[in-house]
Amino acid sequence: MKPTIALLALFMAACDGGESSSLPTAPSPTDPSPTAVDGGQLFTYGNAVAYLPTGIAEYKAAIVFLPGLRDPATGNDLDSRALVRGTSDGACSIWCPRAERAQVRSRALQLVGGNVALIGTTTLEDNPASYGTLLQALSNFGTQSQHPELANIPIVFVGHSMGGCTAYGFSRVHGARVAGFFT
Q: Which DSSP symbol is given to 173?
C-alpha cells in the first residue's frame, strides 16, 4: 500500500471517537525559542505549532492538519496541536483516540522521504485572512528554525469537516502552494 493511502486509511480509522476537553482557540503569543522534544523541535506562532524533525537539511513539504469546528459529541473545539506535539494532552483532535496519535504522527513523518514538517492548529475559518495567517505562520517557522524553505514549500492538507472546506478554499486561492489534501 502506498504511504499516502496508508496514512489516509489510518486517519479515517482513527476518527472513531475518544476523550476530549476544551482548549482556548485564541492565538497565543509567538514563542521565538524552540522547545526540544524527542527527535525534533517545536515552534509556535499564534494558534499554530510546528514539529521539525532534527537532521533535515531541507524540508520538502509541510503536512498541515486542519481540524473542523467542534466535536459533535461534546461541542468542544477541535485542535490538532497535540497530535503535532506528540502529546496526549489537549482537546480531542480530529485523530482520536489519543492512543493512536503517535502512529498517525509517525506515519506522517515518513512521507516525502522524511523531509516533512508537521503543522497543527486550532480551527481556521475558510477565508483569505485565515489563509494569510497560515502562510505567515509557515514563514515565521522558517525564520525561527533557520529553514527559510518553510515559507514556500508545498503543503499537504489533512482536513476534517470545516478543515476540509478550508483546505479546498486555500487551494483555490493559493493553488501553487498545495501539493494535495485529504478530507
A: H
